[in-house]
Design a protein that fits this description.
The protein has 233 residues and is an alpha+beta fold. The protein folds into two domains: 143 residues, no CATH class; 60 residues, Arc Repressor Mutant, subunit A. 19% of the residues lie in helices and 35% in strands. It has five helices and nine strands; from the N terminus they run αβββαββαββααββ. The strands form two sheets. Strands 1, 2, 3, 4, 5, 6 and 7 form a seven-stranded mixed β-sheet that branches. A two-stranded antiparallel sheet has the order 8-9. β3, α2 and β4 form a beta-alpha-beta unit. α4 packs across α5. The protein is globular and about 60 Å long.
């Protein structure tokens, strides 16, 4: 749903974070064309040697597009993970009423929440992922009349704004996915080991081992009680 507010924040179909990352890569990709038509699809940045797609939300929505494009082109998928986030609350007129640092910090492991839609694509020779570890602002405002949520809430997310790209990590091969795992895991490891090392949910840990196994980065080994153990593939 599109909703405009009286502020300098982008609230239309393309958010500020997506626009900022698209501009960043357009500035460094050789022969860049922005919003270019390629094989029946519109891509964020089309360079002479590579296509760049910025995805700030679900990978599932881009699955068909990515699977088609890698057949004939080198494709770089850029995904931002906020390692620092500021929560900015605005009123109905767009004026800032509060700004505070979020206690939540993103981890590289969070990529698996979306990668679960396309895990096998990581093994394709034409496909690459760049994880952008970012500092961001999340802009929140009053809930529009008539909006419904599965869970009750008191705010509506209007936008995400890029403050800085702290670091980037390239995933060129399935083996590169292993850097997303927390350091110090035992060898072999289980999903319970991932949960204990990160404090993240069992669901995310299960998505991580699913993606790693489907891409060929790890393999199933023996059982440890009721848990499956995994090792490098």
């Amino acid at each position: 749903m599109s909703r405009a507010v009286r502020s300098d924040f982008t609230t239309l179909r393309e958010g500020s974070l997506h626009a900022a990352l698209k501009a960043r890569y357009a500035a460094i990709v050789a022969g860049a064309r922005v919003e270019a038509a390629v094989d029946g699809f519109v891509v964020d940045v089309a360079g002479r040697d590579e296509l760049v797609e910025v995805q700030t939300a679900s990978f599932a929505s881009a699955r068909r597009k990515l699977e088609r494009l890698v057949g004939s082109h080198r494709v770089l998928l850029v995904y931002p993970i906020p390692v620092e986030k500021w929560l900015v609350t605005v009123d109905a007129d767009g004026a800032v009423v509060r700004r505070r640092r979020s206690p939540k910090r993103g981890l590289g492991l969070d990529l698996f929440d979306e990668l679960v839609s396309i895990p096998a694509l990581v093994a394709h020779s034409n496909f690459r992922i760049e994880v952008a570890l970012t500092s961001e602002e999340e802009v929140r405002g009053p809930i529009p009349d008539g909006a419904r949520y599965r869970y009750p809430r008191t705010w509506w997310r209007l936008d995400r704004r890029l403050l800085d790209v702290v670091d980037t990590r390239r995933i060129d091969t399935p083996a590169d996915l292993l850097w997303l795992l927390p350091p110090g895991l035992p060898e072999p490891f289980t999903t319970a080991d991932i949960v204990a090392a990160t404090g993240r949910s069992k669901r995310l840990a299960m998505r991580a081992v699913y993606c790693l196994e489907r891409s060929g980065a790890i393999a199933r080994l023996a059982r440890r009680g009721r848990l499956t153990t995994y090792g490098r593939g």
